[in-house]
Amino acid sequence: MQSQVLPFSLRVSAFMLSRLGKPFPGLTARMFLSMYSTPPKRKLRDSHLAVREHAVLEKAAFSRYPFDDRPLTLSIYRWGQSDKKILLLHGWGGSPFDFRQMITALTAAGYEVITFDAPAHGASQGRKTNLIQWMHIIEQLLQRTGPVHAIIGHSLGGLSAALTLVHKKVRVPRLVMVSAAVSAPVFFGETFQIFGIPEKVMPKVQQLVIRRLKQDLLQLDLFQHIDQIKADHIMVAYDETDSIVREQQIDSFLQQYPAITPLKIKGEGHFRIMKDPRVIEGVLEFIGK
Residues near 90 by Cβ (< 8 Å), separated by ≥ 6? Predict the structure, then answer.
């Protein structure tokens, strides 16, 4: 599952956390939160650079949190020009250019595509980031760009988009979540289980999140807000062979919210799903209705 995509250094850190958890739960919580706030670095491929060359680049400053006005400069990219704007949100450790096939299809269909390097990713500022900061950035960006026709988010980008539409004063006509977890607490719980971190550490993590980020971790769970996502129409695209986001969790979520349009495929996993022709065609059809 998650351990399959973590670099070796993080797996070593996780091993240490499993040993430190019982005698030092507070220290373990701080180390865990630091580890899961530091995205892995990656080098862009030639195919990524090619799509970046055709983008209009903008550098813009945003406040870091609702309680922290210090500026954070992010790189924003645009393709096409239209009154129908699409906001794309990449996942943890990801890049906007992972959407290259989707970007091509959207601009060919007449949409304007807007996306950005999340904090601590790509060419944007920052060393650490988190879901709560992403929600704040998304809210600010939507306020600046004006109405968007749809948001399409992959993985953590999908979860952050949905939670932004729950907790912030923004609304969109259409939301597409691709291979997105639907609960941060469940994701953390699975991580604890995978790496053998004692359960007594989790309350310490929750306290840290409240103290440092002014947000209750338990509120970052779409199961608790299943009918409060401020989007007129929602699609969830996922792969039953995904090794990061469990099929059973998505199935359970969809059963509780039958108004969501599901798109399930098999064989592409967590990352390749973004370029699968069935998904791209399904997304285009969904946002075009």
Answer: 96, 98, 99, 115, 118, 121, 154, 155, 157
pLDDT digits (tens, 9 = 90+) for 223-240: 999 889 999 999 999 999
pTM score of the predicted model:
0.95
DSSP state of 155: T
Q: Answer yes or no: are the C-beta atoms of 208 and 29 closer than 8 Å.
A: yes
90, with CB counted inside 10 A (0-12, 13-18, 19+), is buried
| Helical pair 184-195 and 201-213, crossing angle rounded to 10 deg | 140
Domains in the chain (CATH in brackets) are: 36-183+220-287 (3.40.50.1820)
* Residue closest to 137 by CA, chosen among 71, 92, 50: 71
The H-or-E segment that residue 190 falls in is: helix 184-195
Structural tokens at position 231:
């989007």
